[in-house]
Each structure stands twice: as C-alpha cells, then as structure tokens.
Amino acid sequence: MGRRVLRPIFFSALIFLSLVSVSFGAISNDLLRKGNERMRDKDYVQAIVYFESAHKADPYNKTVYKHLSVAYHNLAVLNSQKGELENAIRNGLSALRFDPESGIIKEQLSIFYNNLALKNADSGNYKSAKESLKKALELSPDSEVLKTNMYNILIKYAGVQLAKENYTSAVKTAKEAAVILPSTPDAYILAGNIYYQQDNFKDALEYWEKALSFNPMDEGVKKRIENLKREKAVERDFGTERKTFFKIRFDKELDSRYVGTILDILDDARRSIRNQFGFYSDTVIPVIVYDDEQFQAATAQPHWTQGVYDGKIRLRYQDISRDDANLKRVLFHEYAHAMIFIHVGGGIPIWLNEGFAQFNEPDADFTASDKVFLSDYVKKYGKFSINALDGMFEKKDDQGAIRAAYLESRLFFDYLVEKYTKYRIKRLFEELKQGKPWQKAFTEVYQVSIDRIEKNFNNYLDDLLR
C-alpha cells in the first residue's frame, strides 16, 4: 500500500476587526479602548484581560463578544505558530464560544486539531491522533485534506493493532477508514489481510474483492484472491495447533508428535536469529504443512520447492519429513524469510533475501558436490555477477541456474559477513528498510563500488573452487 503521507494545514492570517465606538458606560468603554490598544501592539493576552473585564461589566453586549472572539483567535494563531498546539486549541475554543457562527474560526480550529493529530501520529499515539481529527472533522466536515489524514491515520492505527494481534480492534479500525473514503481500496485490502491472518477466508475474500472493484488493475490483490481460493479449497479440513509465537495448520492425518517437533524447531530458529541479528517478532506466525499434492495446489510452486514464506510459512510434508536435519534446515530457512519481511520489508533483492535465509540454516556446509557443480557452472556461464543473480532465480524451469543462484547467494552473504562483519549487514538492512535502492545502500554501507566488490568476491570464489 505504500507509505501514507499525512498533510499539515497552515492558516496564519490574523483577524483584526474594526472596533466600533459605542456608549454603554464609562468603565466598559475605557476597558474596550485599552484592550484595542493592546490588540494593535499584538499583546493579545493583555487585550483579553481588558475585554474580559468589559464583558463582566456588560455581559450581554455583542460588540464585546466580537472583540473577545478576535483576541482569543489571534492568540490561538500565535500559539500555533510557536508550536503550542494545545494552547492554540484552548484559545480557539474560547474564540468560538464568543462567536459560534464564525466559519473562519471553525476552519482555523479544525486546522489546530489536524496539526495536533499529525504531531501525535508522528510519536505513535494514533488513538489521540484519531480523536483530534474527529474533532477537526466536526468543525470542517467537507475538508478533503482532513478526511485523507483521518483515513491514513486509521490505516496506520489498524496496522499497529494488527501487529499486537488485536484483530478485532484492527479490523474495526480498518472498516472505520473505509467509511471515511469509501472508494479508496487500501482499507479493504487491510481488512482482508486481517481476516486472512485469522484464517477467515470468507471475509478476507469479500474485502479483497471489494478492493479490486475500486482498482481492477491491482495485480497484487488479484494474486491474493487467486491464492486464497486455492488455499481455501485445500485447507478446508485442516487441524490447528498453537504455541506462543506460532500457529500450525496441518492435515489431520499428520502425526501430532511431528507437529510438536516443528513448533519446537521454530522456537529454536526464533532464538537463533534473534541472538545473531536482533530480528524477532512477538506476532504469531502461521505455519501450514501440506502433503505433496496439497502444496502444489495451494502454492503453485515448482516441484523442487521445499518451503515458501508469503505471510505464512508453507511446508511440504514429504520433503521435511525425510530426517530431522532437513526439517530443521527448511524451518530455519523459512523463518529467516519471515523475519526479513517483518523487519526490512519486501523491497530487497532476492539474492540478499536468500543469502540471509541460507546463512541462518544450521550446519549448512558447502559440500564437495556443491563445489564441483558450481565450478562447472562458472566455467560454462561466466563469473559471479550481483546484478545477474536475481534473474537466475527467475529461471524456474532451469534447475541448474536455480541451484547456482542459491549457492552464489549463500557464498556471497558468507563472504560479506566474514570480511565486513554482521554489523555491516545489519546497517544494510536498516538502509533498505528506509526505502533506499539496494545498490545505493550497498555502496554507502560497504564504502566500495559494486564492480570492485564483485572482482574481490570472484577472486575469493576462484580460490574456493580450486
């Protein structure tokens, strides 16, 4: 859905009303005159003192009301310009109390509420931001900027609730966003995502299809719907078992002791990756175990695929049940993918994603067979190239290219850790998390050109493959 931008509103013009000469008693008249002098000096606090005194002397005089309204309003604008938004709101409300029909005061007060909402949102206080924008919209119900800001804050708030597994609150907040901008698809996509994480396929499908009706060209949503329909058909009769940080769904014929082993290994993977890279999540990660036919039907992946992470860890029973070492390797690998997605996002090159996942596999040795294969592949197709790696992963029907891509990614990741330490890898992930192109992030973190590091690694690889 992309980064949602919240828009501040600025309205800095001060209102000065002409002070009409009136006769309603010497005391009130003198107070009003003194207040007017303070207004000309922009001493709004002292002006309010005089005007409030005049109001006490003649509480029903509408002219005094107008002067109080102007003074409070101008003080509120001054507060806002200094960043004192709470004071701006308090004084703006006082201005509105003395002139409740003023459209300008209502508009300005709504702006104060809006900018306070953005301030709260920046500090992660989305609940307060939502309440401030609600008040802003009561004052300026037709403002498209306010509606957009409310929509974006609700989307962010729902995301925070989802991360904490407050599914009921998250989906409620997403639906509130949909009411604000009913023709904008993001809220429907988010609601569908929340239902999907709860394995509520019916409602997930309903909301994704609604999102697609507003943006029929969204290939991502089309793919989610397609995958969900396949998954729904396969998993209709699956059982569920849950541990603290994982929820596993499986064919009921699968040995329950085997399910327990999977959960224990995932706990080990969680501890290992947390200790090495500081990546962990308290969110429950869904894990689904299929037989061979079910896996193919649910994922449409090539036959050689042993596991997939697409928001859920998906495993093929026939592959991971060969022995405990293979099961451990696959589970660590897919959990590593989950951590990359959660902590860095999807905008990283495939080679880095796969290199990280393989690095975290326990006892993943570079075997003699691997050495012979890669040596022959390099001689036939040329030296290692970072920019060519992702393209090699796309050759789904070329198992030789796929195997070479995995091996080169793994060895290159190992090389980066060995030569430059894990600290640099962590910095690279942080830069990528900010949305930088990987080439730019890479050269900034490693202080070396892509061409130079390729040359250095190819020298390293030549020595390794001799």
CATH architecture classification of the largest domain = Alpha Horseshoe
Number of helices: 21
CATH superfamily of the largest domain: Tetratricopeptide repeat domain
Kindly state the mean pLDDT as a whole number?
A: 87
Architecture overview:
With 466 residues, the chain is mainly alpha-helical. The chain has 4 domains: 1-141, Serine Threonine Protein Phosphatase 5, Tetratricopeptide repeat; 167-234, Tetratricopeptide repeat domain (Serine Threonine Protein Phosphatase 5, Tetratricopeptide repeat, Alpha Horseshoe); 235-339, Glutaredoxin; 344-466, no CATH class. It is 68% helix and 5% strand. Strands 1-2-3-5-4 form a 5-stranded mixed sheet. Helix 1 (26-40) packs antiparallel against helix 2 (44-57), helix 10 (201-214) runs antiparallel to helix 11 (219-234) and helix 19 crosses helix 20 (438-446).
